[in-house]
């Protein structure tokens, strides 16, 4: 059985991107003809050149005025292979309420807010809570503003994910995935 716990970190980036658009108003995810639905993807090097790509669905955001928080349900993982997804859900322990979601929080004051028609690049420190552990993670992003819509494009690499979040490293026949996970996110938010 090949189990995956790494993909939930992809959701961590989502909160950063959402946070970038956080100004004084309420935020919501936004999609239309020019702004496609949110895409939270991950990549991890697998055993013997077997690379693993996947995505999550169902992300949500909240903004309390000082912190923008992103959550995503771990049971929405999709790698394109049903059996792998099933093993990942077992590995994430999604039946345990304590481990159903990944949570990422970003201090609002640390985010750049581009002017209308402009873009800003930045890096922020977010806190990621996964599998009952909370860690600080650097997230790089580009935010582009058009009116009240912010397009977010960013990435990060989470080093030593298995040990850092106290998870069992996914292995099959004594061959294991690598310790680092690359994450990318593209989506839009609207400031109401």
Write structural notes for this entry.
By secondary structure, the protein is mainly beta. Residues 1-24 have low confidence and may be disordered. The protein is built from three helices and twelve strands; from the N terminus they run H-E-E-E-E-E-H-E-E-E-E-H-E-E-E. The chain has helices spanning 10-20, 82-92, 161-164; strands at 27-30, 39-44, 52-56, 60-63, 67-73, 101-107, 119-130, 133-146, 149-158, 171-172, 175-176, 181-191. The protein has one domain (6-191): Lipid/polyisoprenoid-binding, YceI-like (Lipocalin), CATH 2.40.128.110. Strands 1, 2, 3, 4, 5, 6, 7, 8, 9 and 12 form a ten-stranded antiparallel β-sheet that branches. Strands 10-11 form a two-stranded antiparallel sheet.
Describe how the helices and strands are arranged:
Layout: H1 10-20, E1 27-30, E2 39-44, E3 52-56, E4 60-63, E5 67-73, H2 82-92, E6 101-107, E7 119-130, E8 133-146, E9 149-158, H3 161-164, E10 171-172, E11 175-176, E12 181-191
CATH classification, class level? Mainly Beta
Low-confidence stretches: 1-24
Question: What count of domains describes the coordinates?
Answer: 1
**Percentage beta strand:** 35-45%
Report the end-to-end length measured between terminal Cα atoms.
Answer: 46 Å
Structural class: mainly beta
Query: Overall mean pLDDT score?
Result: 75
CATH architecture: Beta Barrel
Biggest sheet, in brief? 10 strands, antiparallel
CATH topology: Lipocalin
CATH superfamily grouping? Lipid/polyisoprenoid-binding, YceI-like
Shape, please?
Answer: globular
Q: Element order, helices and strands?
A: HEEEEEHEEEEHEEE
The total beta strand count reads 12
Work out the radius of gyration: 16 Å
Helix count equals 3
Helix proportion range? 10-25%
């Amino acid at each position: 059985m090949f189990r995956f716990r790494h993909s939930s970190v992809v959701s961590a980036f989502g909160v950063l991107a959402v946070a970038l658009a956080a100004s004084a108003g309420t935020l919501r995810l936004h999609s239309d003809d020019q702004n496609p639905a949110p895409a939270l993807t991950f990549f991890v090097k697998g055993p013997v050149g077997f690379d693993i790509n996947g995505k999550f669905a169902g992300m949500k955001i909240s903004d309390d005025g000082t912190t923008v928080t992103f959550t995503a349900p771990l049971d929405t993982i999709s790698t394109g292979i049903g059996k792998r997804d099933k093993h990942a859900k077992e590995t994430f322990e999604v039946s345990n309420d304590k481990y159903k979601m990944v949570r990422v929080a970003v201090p609002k004051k640390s985010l750049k807010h581009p002017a209308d028609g402009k873009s800003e690049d930045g890096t922020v420190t977010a806190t990621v809570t996964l599998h009952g552990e909370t860690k600080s993670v650097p997230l790089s992003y580009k935010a582009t503003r058009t009116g009240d819509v912010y397009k977010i494009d960013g990435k990060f690499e989470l080093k030593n994910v298995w040990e850092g979040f106290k998870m069992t490293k996914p292995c099959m026949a004594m061959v294991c995935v690598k310790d680092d996970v690359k994450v990318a996110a593209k989506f839009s938010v609207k400031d109401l």
